[in-house]
TrEMBL record:
<dbReference type="InterPro" id="IPR018108">
    <property type="entry name" value="MCP_transmembrane"/>
</dbReference>
<keyword id="KW-0106">Calcium</keyword>
<keyword id="KW-0677">Repeat</keyword>
<comment type="similarity">
    <text>Belongs to the mitochondrial carrier (TC 2.A.29) family.</text>
</comment>
<keyword id="KW-1133">Transmembrane helix</keyword>
<dbReference type="InterPro" id="IPR023395">
    <property type="entry name" value="MCP_dom_sf"/>
</dbReference>
<dbReference type="GO" id="GO:0055085">
    <property type="term" value="P:transmembrane transport"/>
</dbReference>
<keyword id="KW-0813">Transport</keyword>
<feature type="repeat" description="Solcar">
    <location>
        <begin position="129"/>
        <end position="216"/>
    </location>
</feature>
<keyword id="KW-0999">Mitochondrion inner membrane</keyword>
<dbReference type="InterPro" id="IPR002067">
    <property type="entry name" value="MCP"/>
</dbReference>
<feature type="repeat" description="Solcar">
    <location>
        <begin position="29"/>
        <end position="115"/>
    </location>
</feature>
<keyword id="KW-0496">Mitochondrion</keyword>
<dbReference type="Pfam" id="PF00153">
    <property type="entry name" value="Mito_carr"/>
</dbReference>
<keyword id="KW-0812">Transmembrane</keyword>
<keyword id="KW-0479">Metal-binding</keyword>
<dbReference type="GO" id="GO:0046872">
    <property type="term" value="F:metal ion binding"/>
</dbReference>
Amino acid sequence: MSNSAEESSSQPQAQQQQQAVVSTRPGIGAICKSLVAGGVAGGLSRTAVAPLERLKILMQVQGNEKVYRGVWQGLVHMTRTEGLRGLLKGNLTNCVRIIPNSAVKFLTYEQLSREMSDHYRATRGSGELTPALRLLAGACAGIIAMSATYPLDMVRGRLTVQEGRNQQYRGIVHAARVIIAEEGARALYKGWLPSVIGVIPYVGLNFAVYESLKAGLQKQYGLRDERELSIAARLGCGAAAGSMGQTVAYPFDVARRRLQVSGWQGARDLHSHGGNVVAYTGMVDCFARTVREEGMQALFKGLWPNYLKVVPSIAIAFVTYEQMKEALGVEFRISE
C-alpha cells in the first residue's frame, strides 16, 4: 500500500518536473523576435566597423608587396584611391550576409543551451551550464550559421577585395553569376573548411567567455539578474570575449580569405607572386605556402586592425541583441 502511494506521489512530481522543463521553451513569437534582434545586432555591429573590416581583408590577401602597411596608412590609402565610399565598399554585401548569420547564430545558441540546461535540470536538478557546455553550444551555433550563409561571405570577400581600377563585379547577384559561370558552383564554398574550423573556437569562445564573465560579475556583486549589469560592464565582457576568440581563430580567417581569391585574376594587384596569381589546392597547401613564402607572421596579417574592429563589433553585437530583445519584450535571455 505504501509502495503504491509512493509511486502515485512520484508520478505527479515527475510530470511537474517534465512540464517545468517543457515550459521554458519559447513560442513562435519569441523565436521571431529573437531572430529580428539577432539580425539588427549583426547589421549594426558590422556597419560600425566596416572600414576596418575591409582593411583587414585587404591586408590578409596582399602578397609580399605591401600596399597596406598599417591601420592609418591603409584607411588613408583607401580614401585617396576610392573616396569615402571605398571605406564602406562591400558593407552592403556584408550586412546581407551578417544579418541572417547573426540571427541564426544567436537563436541556435539559445536553443542549444536551453536544451542542454533543460536536460541537466531534469536529470541532475541544476540547469546551470558550465563554460565547456557554453563553448560547445557556441561552436555548434557558429558552424550552422556559417554553413548556411557561406556563399554570401564568399561573394562579399570578392567584392571587398576588388579596387577602383580593377572592377570585375557590379554587385552581389552579378558576382555570384560570374563566379558560378567561370569557376563553377563549388567555388562559392572556397575556403569553407578553414572557416568552419576557425568558427569553432571563435564563436564558441565568444559565447562562453561572454556568458561566463557576466555570470562571474553577477556572483561577485550579488546581482539577482544579468540586466542589473551596466551596459559598460556588458560591453567590457563582449570586448574581452571577442579579443580572445579572434586571436585563436585568426590564422583560419586568413586562410579563408586567401582561398576565396585563389586563382582569381581580379586579385592580381594584391595577391600574386612574380606577377602570377596565386592558386591553392586546399587549406593545407594554403597554410604551407603562406608560411614558406611569407613567414609565420603572414598568418596574422591584419590582426591589429582586426582587434580594433572585433573589440567594438562583438561588444556592440551582444549588447544590442540583449537590448533589442528587452525592447521587443522577449521573455527569455541567453544566460537565463
